[in-house]
Amino acid sequence: MDSETPKQINQFNVLPVSPKLGSQNLKKFFYFAQLILRIVVIASALTGAITMTSSDQSVSFFGIVLKARYTYSSAFRYKVVVDSVVSGLSVLSLVLVISLNRPKSNPKNYFYLFLLDLVSLLLLLSGCSAATAIGFVGRYGQAKTGWVAICDRVAKFCDKIIVSIASSYLAVAGLLVLTVLSAHKLKSESFLEVI
């Protein structure tokens, strides 16, 4: 049976795959996935910040003016700051990814990229959580504490808040994938150095 195996391989013209070729394709895929995901995170976080800052609305009821602005809520202000900081950190990480793609770069520097992604993920998740909690109260109210829903009166304001929060959650998902990719890259590089 052992003598038949080479004949079968030659019969189907199967060539052995070079492991170096497969690793080069994997490195290219990893590099381009990092670039695309980081650009998506930057765009999503900036969209979240810009949409939140443009979400003000004024309505009047029987001569009383009701103003809804993101600055009235500390959670919304915090989310704008976090979105801006994460956008800046993501631009920095984009530069770091490009510099790590050079042939003479030190693979140990992926640890800093991993830390940058992890810190960005945690910051953005905290900002999104705070804004989601206040947005939920604004949309549905809370009868036990006497907080009334305001979204039936300032619907345009609430719609922009929802778009801002959803955009930031898209950035959270991107950062989660980037954190996993950075950890995987760090682990695979460390494994190769040991061998």
TrEMBL record:
PANTHER family per UniProt: CASP-LIKE PROTEIN 1U1 (PTHR36488)
Keyword Cell membrane appears in the UniProt entry: yes
Name of protein: CASP-like protein
Stored NCBIfam families: A_tha_TIGR01569 (TIGR01569)
Family of this protein: Belongs to the Casparian strip membrane proteins (CASP) family.
Primary location: membrane
Subcellular location: Cell membrane
Listed GO CC annotations: plasma membrane
Annotated ranges, domain Casparian strip membrane protein: 32-173
Lipid bilayer topology: Multi-pass membrane protein
Keyword Transferase: no
Keyword field: Cell membrane, Membrane, Transmembrane, Transmembrane helix
Pfam families: CASP_dom (PF04535)
Residues annotated as transmembrane: 29-52, 76-98, 110-141, 161-181
Subunit structure: Homodimer and heterodimers.
